[in-house]
Specification:
By secondary structure, the protein is an alpha+beta fold. It is built from 21 helices and 17 strands. The longest helix is centred in the middle third of the chain and has 43 residues, at 380-422. Mean pLDDT is 80; it is low at 439-448, 486-497 and 514-519.
Length: 677
């Protein structure tokens, strides 16, 4: 490693290298079309009304009114899905800018090597939080933009003093800008704490008196701003708006019922301690959390503790040394707790990458400080080698995450486009049944990393994706009803034969995903024109009903599929079929019988008595256990359904399957579910 080259590299060349490397790892997010989660909600404001973004009232109610205002301005300029790429580029450039500001501060204030400061800044740029702010356009305002606002606040504060009128004006301006930042998003507004944190660990011991004075100023500035923000919004702004605007009042009622976002102070310190431990695991893991979870945190923590102990042990041992170090430790702990105040104090809250930026950046600064101290102790080559490893590995992990996120989000968008375009007559479409990818199936199992999942895995924003694609195709969506469900859950799904499009995202096979082995049925047919035959396969409480035998029900797969077992379930023993045959075909013309079931109307000796009806013993009474799983009912347990299971003797691959029912307990036939394996 040519140390002299990196120590003497020009500032312009270093910035060019920094920007080029940063652009390389984030590039996949800019070259394909996609949006993330509620980005698609922009199409809910089709008239482009000012303050028409769907989450405006909610953001005001949770204490982020300026966030709401700026988001509406941002999305006013979004006209198409392609525009989101521009939004992501703007967010990226903003993130690069605030990281370069941090680099300049470290270099000019503490006389650190520019290459050292650049590597530290790049490690901050690749934190999962910054990745979220970049790839998820809705998080540009509360993320990258607000960090820049907070940084601006601190830079103005640095020019303030209490002796001159101009200095006092700077202080008031800095306080105002900080309040604006808090009204955008409090967790990122606390980026102002990164500068006093760096001041503690990088300042010279001989300057401790001055450093302590500035730290006290910064802490008073931050706590005063947070206090004014809380009191003003909680007791002045919100009551004023709630009394005059019904939508704000309605949102407050919703938040009170679900207090995860409530702007209140908690008393549950045990739960907050658990959250802080989880938050610490995320923060200390940095960019490696995406690949390895919080396992990395323990190694980083041990490294920091051992390194700090060695540095403190080998430090000066003058009369004031121990007291100074104790004070430094006190301020470090205080800053870490203050940086996490929005999560620790809030009544609700939860751990996400969005919350953890400041804490994660502090961990990066602490780790690089340790490496800096090692370089001053004669281990310059070793410490620089570790720094290069950190930069390259975090860059590689960011590139991997951006690539996978962009590819999968684009796959889902193209899949929806293709499905709607393939409908026989898109303008006549009336219903869309959207089957989402199961939570945990995309990219990672961690709930925390759900932020990098996609709209079609987010139950709340599926309809917005559909509206966006319909808008692209020039199709009016006012009369189209979109219903959503997870594969196999009990949420209602509306499936019809002729006017419903089924979009099953499990068929998209996103990169890195894990899916059910089931291939979704694409068409349903029945002999009766009564209820939709799809109801016999939707895994809900709905049912397919018909009158008078014979009756048949048919399904079609997009490709050849093998059925090895099936079960027929009904809520009432009085309306079960007794005799039927299962037929299979590849062309819906030539059918082959692959199974036949024959049950006689039973007598008392060879039957169950279920709900007052004699049922053949081949049918089992089922109830629900405590985990809502179907189990056989015993004794006096309530019976919710009866079920008959069948294993095929010679299963094969076919596209079409048809059950032909020829006799039953009565004229009526009702089937709640046909389960297939």
């Amino acid at each position: 490693m040519n140390m002299s080259y990196w120590e003497n590299i020009s500032s312009k060349k270093l910035i060019l290298i920094f920007f080029s490397f940063s652009l390389a790892v984030y590039l996949p997010a800019f070259i394909v079309d996609f949006a993330i989660h509620n980005d698609y909600s922009v199409w809910a404001n089709e008239e482009k009304n000012f303050l028409g973004f769907p989450e405006t009232n909610w953001l005001v109610a949770v204490g982020r009114p300026i966030n709401a205002l700026l988001l509406n301005i941002q999305f006013f300029f979004i006209e198409s899905i392609e525009d989101f790429a521009i939004a992501r580029i703007v967010s990226f450039l903003t993130a690069v800018l605030f990281c370069l500001v941090i680099k300049r501060y470290l270099t000019s204030r503490f006389h650190l090597q520019p290459s050292f400061s650049a590597m530290l800044a790049f490690s901050i740029l690749t934190l999962p939080s910054v990745q979220v702010y970049t790839v998820w356009a809705t998080n540009f305002v509360p993320g990258s933009l607000n960090i820049l606002i907070a940084v601006s606040s601190y830079y103005i504060l640095e020019r303030a003093d209490s002796k001159s009128r101009k200095g006092k004006a700077y202080f008031l301006l800095a306080f105002f800008v900080f309040l604006v930042s808090l009204l955008v998003y409090p967790p990122t507004a606390l980026t102002v704490l990164l500068f006093p944190f760096a001041r503690i660990i990088f300042s010279e011991p001989s300057e401790w008196q001055k450093t302590r004075k500035l730290l006290t100023r910064d802490l008073l500035f931050t706590t005063a701003g947070m206090s004014v923000y809380y009191v003003a919004h909680k007791f002045l702004i919100l009551p004023f708006l709630a009394n005059r605007y019904a939508p704000i009042r309605k949102q407050l009622d919703v938040i009170m019922a679900h207090p995860k976002y409530e702007l209140s102070i908690t008393g549950d310190f045990i739960e907050k301690a658990r959250q802080f431990l989880k938050l610490s695991g995320v923060a200390l893991s940095g960019a490696w959390h995406l690949a390895f979870g919080s396992k990395v945190a323990l190694a980083v923590l041990v490294l920091l503790l051992v390194g700090c102990a060695l540095v403190l042990y080998r430090g000066s041992k003058g009369s004031g040394s121990i007291g100074r170090k104790a004070q430094m430790l006190f301020f470090v702990v205080l800053l870490i707790l203050l940086a996490n105040t929005p999560m620790l104090v809030a009544k609700g809250s939860f751990v996400t990458y969005r919350f953890v930026f400041v804490y994660s950046a502090m961990a990066v600064i602490g780790l690089f400080w340790l490496l800096h101290r090692l370089s001053l102790s004669g281990l310059k080559r070793f410490s620089y080698a570790i720094m290069v490893f950190l930069v390259v590995s975090s860059g590689a992990l960011t590139l991997r995450n951006m690539t996978q996120t962009a590819i999968n989000a684009n796959i889902e968008l193209e899949f929806v486009r293709q499905k709607i375009a393939s409908f026989d007559d898109p303008p006549r479409l009336q219903n869309i049944s959207f089957i989402t990818v199961p939570r945990g199936a995309i990219f990672t199992d961690s709930d925390l990393r759900y932020e990098f999942r996609f709209g079609t895995a987010n139950f709340n924003h599926v309809s917005s994706i559909v509206v966006a694609v319909l808008d692209e195709m020039g199709i009016e969506d006012e009369d189209i009803k979109t219903t959503t469900s997870y594969l196999g859950n009990k949420k209602t799904r509306i499936l019809k034969d002729d006017d419903t499009l089924i979009i099953d995202m499990n068929e998209a096979r996103l990169v890195g995903g894990r899916y059910e082995d089931e291939i979704s049925i694409t068409r349903f047919y029945a002999s009766s024109k009564g209820t939709s035959p799809a109801r016999a396969f939707d895994r809900t409480d709905s049912s397919w009903k018909a009158t008078d035998y014979p009756q048949w029900i048919e399904i079609s797969y997009p490709i050849d599929e093998k059925i090895t077992k099936y079960a027929i379930m009904s809520v009432s023993p009085a309306v079960i079929p007794l005799n039927w045959q299962l037929e299979a075909s590849n062309d819906r013309t030539n059918w082959v019988e692959i199974d036949r079931q024959t049950d006689k109307i039973p007598g008392a000796k060879d039957a169950h008595l279920i709900q007052g009806v004699l049922v053949p013993k081949s049918w089992r009474p089922l109830t629900l256990d405590k985990d809502l799983n179907w189990v056989e009912a015993k004794g006096d347990e309530p019976v919710y359904v009866v079920e008959k299971r069948v294993t095929l003797k010679k299963p094969n691959f076919y596209k079409n399957y048809r059950w032909v029912f020829t006799a039953g307990n009565s004229r009526l036939i009702e089937i709640n579910e046909i389960l297939l394996e």
